[in-house]
Amino acid sequence: MRRRFRKADWIFLAVTVCLIAALLFFFSFFRGEAGGSVVVTVDRTVYGTYPLSEDAVISIDTEDGHNVLTIRGGEAKMTEADCPDRLCVHQKAVSRSRETIVCLPHKVVVSVESRKENGLDAVAE
Question: Residue 20 has what DSSP assignment?
Answer without folding.
Answer: H
